[in-house]
Amino acid sequence: MEDVDALRRELLDAVNAAGDLETLDQVRVRALGKKGRITGLMKTLGDLDPEERKAAGQRLNALKEEVGEAIEQRRAVLEEAALDAQLEAEKVDITLPARPESPGRVHPISQTFDEVTAIFAAMGFEVAEGPDIEDDFHNFNALNIPPEHPARQMHDTFYLADPGDGGERPLLRTHTSPVQIRTMQHTTPPIRVIAPGRTFRCDSDMTHTPMFHQVEGLVVDRTTHMGHLKGCLIDFVKAYFEVPDVPTRFRPSFFPFTEPSAEMDIGCSHQGGGLTIGAGDDWMEILGCGMVHPNVLTACGIDPEVYQGFAFGLGMERIAMLKYGIPDLRTFFDADLRWLRHYGFAALDVPTLAGGLTR
């Protein structure tokens, strides 16, 4: 019988020297295949006497197991190396810079949010945020909106699926006013916040979309009054439209959550078929506002005998359309790169009151 120790060294050396999976498989066949070296020796065991057959069989079985384990270990190493080589060959460099002929642009809505935030931040307002999915209390009840109000109906509000546990159906917030409610519930006055964000209503035409953006403001303290509200908003429109003298007027209106309530108009001109903000012979409504209703303060745990406040709200798309001459609200959501290149802003044009809101 062939020297088993010499055969072991020869086969193990061949296994370790295999540089790829194909070569390793050839070594396996030469050692363990039907016509392999170890298989051939196993076939000669029948020619030996019983004692020799037993000893030789044990040695050959041990050699077969050792060579098989060595092959599997070498296979694992080669497979890992093959995978690494494949990944290296197929890798994609995601760090490549953007093509210089196609620079990114900031969406007008994002820019408008930054502009509005910069203006109110200079007045001492902080930014507050809240969830898009709300409940009846935060979206309606706490805002003094009665059960029979049309805004609660399904033709105006997106209600989500019934939870099935007897609870109220959640809804997509119809304004960012719930952020004001949550702020008043968890903050001790004085309060001065703006609440920018997405809102949702069942409406779609040239001036309405099912999802749109609002920013609302809230001030609550012991001494604030309607004159503070008017001064704050007049300063805002002058800064936002970057016109030193914007005529304004406040017309009485009605909102369930403010009393008294008003709508703010700004002066404009339509001469030449265009729109010019500033001195002119026409007016344009821009936002709603008023003094926070005592019922709203009470619902939030604030004593209306001690504190009072004012609130206002305006649409981001609407004021962006007025400032930048965008005719159709729906184009904000068309994902049209040509439109964005025309109306968009350079990424580094960060609006500030010192450096200018737009450049």
Write the layout of secondary structure elements.
Layout: H1 4-17, H2 21-32, H3 37-43, H4 50-90, E1 105-106, H5 108-122, E2 126-127, E3 133-134, H6 136-139, E4 171-172, H7 177-186, E5 191-200, E6 211-221, H8 226-241, E7 248-255, E8 258-269, E9 276-277, E10 282-292, H9 294-299, E11 308-315, H10 316-324, H11 337-343, E12 345-346
Helix pairs in contact: 1-4, 2-4, 5-10
In a nutshell, what does this entry contain?
This protein has 359 residues and is α+β, with helices and mostly antiparallel strands. Helix content is 39%, strand content 20%.
Q: How would you portray this structure in words?
A:
By secondary structure, this protein is of the alpha+beta class. It has two domains: 4-90; 107-346, BirA Bifunctional Protein, domain 2, CATH 3.30.930. The chain is 39% helix and 20% strand. The chain has eleven helices and twelve strands. The chain has helices at 4-17, 21-32, 37-43, 50-90, 108-122, 136-139, 177-186, 226-241, 294-299, 316-324, 337-343; strands at 105-106, 126-127, 133-134, 171-172, 191-200, 211-221, 248-255, 258-269, 276-277, 282-292, 308-315, 345-346. Strands 2, 5, 6, 7, 8, 9, 10 and 11 form an eight-stranded mixed beta sheet that branches. Strands 1-12 form a two-stranded antiparallel sheet. Strands 3-4 form a two-stranded antiparallel sheet. The termini are far apart. The model has no long low-confidence stretch (mean pLDDT 86).
